[in-house]
Design brief:
Number of strands: 3
CATH class: Alpha Beta
Organism: Agarivorans albus MKT 106
Radius of gyration: 17 Å
Strand order of the largest sheet: 1-2-3
CATH architecture: Alpha-Beta Barrel
InterPro entries: Glyco_hydro/deAcase_b/a-brl, NODB_dom, Polysacch_Deacetylase
GO molecular function, one term: hydrolase activity, acting on carbon-nitrogen (but not peptide) bonds
Keywords: Signal
Order of helices and strands: HHHEHEEH
Subcellular location: Secreted
């Protein structure tokens, strides 16, 4: 694992890992990241599968999470990543509610490249999964393959 981290750091020119090797950022680190131009988004308050909740419960999850993060960071939160992110974990109503709650974009966990950004697709954005087992060269190949499929 250390070898992979070293390779990834070298490839991405990432700063050294903190000595604690904590996988979670603290509020001070998040604030510094936001001040440095990184966008910090919401992931709900308690990580439920939103499609299993009533609309009112979904609204509470979306607004309480956003409001809490905004109060901690002093910056607006306009992006959401759906917990679990599969197509069955959020609904069209969830997407409409996310927009109503002030989110401008929402990310699914569906793999792929987004070929358009319109009112509907902005609340079901695809992304490319990167985990600790992904080799940099493998990620490059995956992106190139997705890009080739998109152009075909």
């Amino acid at each position: 694992m250390e070898e992979k981290l070293d390779m990834l750091k070298a490839e991405c020119k990432a700063p050294p890992m903190p000595s604690s090797h904590s996988l979670f950022a603290n509020w001070q680190q998040l604030k510094e990241m936001a001040e440095g131009g990184m966008t910090i988004g919401s992931h709900t308050r308690s990580h439920p599968i939103l499609a299993h909740l009533s609309l009112e419960q979904q609204r509470e999850e979306l607004t309480q999470s956003r409001d809490f993060i905004e109060s901690k960071l002093g910056t607006a939160v306009s992006m959401l990543a759906y917990p679990v992110g599969r197509t069955d974990s959020f609904t069209e109503q969830t997407q409409a509610l996310a927009q109503e709650c002030g989110y401008r974009l929402a990310f699914s966990f569906m793999n792929g490249i987004n070929t358009q950004l319109d009112a509907q697709s902005a609340y079901q954005l695809k992304r490319i999964s990167v985990d600790g087992n992904k080799e940099v060269d493998s990620l490059k190949v995956q992106v190139m393959e997705l890009n080739t499929k998109h152009r075909a």
